[in-house]
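C-alpha cells please, single chain.
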Amino acid sequence: MNISVLGMGIIGNAWAKNLIADGHTVRCWNRTPKNFPNFTPSIQEAVNQAEVIFIIVYDPPAVQSVLNQIQSKLGPGQLVIQSSTISAKWTRLFAEEVQKTGAWFLEAPFTGSKIAAEQRKTIFYLGGDLEIVEKARPILEPISGTILHIGPLGSASTLKLAMNLNIAGIAQTLCESLMLCRKAGIPDDIYFSALVPNVAHSGVSDLKGPKLRQHDYSAQFSLKNMAKDLRLALETAAELSLPLEQTGHLKSIYDRGIAAGWLNDDFIGLMRLLEKKTG
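Here you go.
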C-alpha cells in the first residue's frame, strides 16, 4: 500500500522501517528534515495519493498543524490513523475535521517504547467504529504485538493517558525507593534481587532498572512527552470533575526536571533530582 508517516520521532522512525520491510511504499515527513528513505520536506507531497496516513506528533497543537496542512489533500478512501497521545476532547475534534473530507479517521494511541516499536511489539488502543478498525488491521497487525478496540472515539485516548499515569507513578516510586536504599548503603544488586519476588515487581522496574543502575538517561520515552501526558490527564480529569492529587504533585516534579533542561532525556532521568539533593 501507499503509506505516509507524518512525524519521524523515535516511534515513527521504527514503524516506518518496519512498514518498508513489509513491502509498503512509505513516504515520510517531519517538521525538521530527517535523513530517512523516501523522506520529503513537503507534507502535501507526502500524503498525495496515500491510502493510509499515520500521524505521530507531539501534542494537540502539532496534530492540528498537520491537519491544517493536509486537509485539502484528504478524501474518500483514505484512512488517517492518529497515534499521537492526545485527549478525548481533541480526538473528537480532529475526527470531525477529517471526516468532513470523506476520509476515515481511526484513533490509535499506543503503548510500548522504542524497543517495542522496533521489535513489532507495540500495543495499540483503538477508538472508533469497528468497520474502520477492521480496515486498519492489515496495516497495524504486522507492526504490533496486541490490538485492543477500546470503544467509541475518545475512549482510547483516555485509556492511554490512564496507563501513562500508572507508568509515571510507578517509575517515580521506583526512583525514590532505590535512592532510599542507596543512602542506607544497600547495594543495587541486593535492591533489585529483593524487588523481583516482591509484589511491587513490575514491567516498569524491568525496563528501567538497568538504566537506573547504569545512570543511563538516554530517551526511550522522553521527559517532555510524559509531562505532556500528565498535563492532558489532569485536563481530562478536570473536565470530569475528578481530582487527581497525586498526579498533580507528580506533574510538579516533572516541571522541575524540564526546568533543569532534561526534557529530551528519558523520564527516569528525574532520578537526578534525588541525586542532587543527596549529593
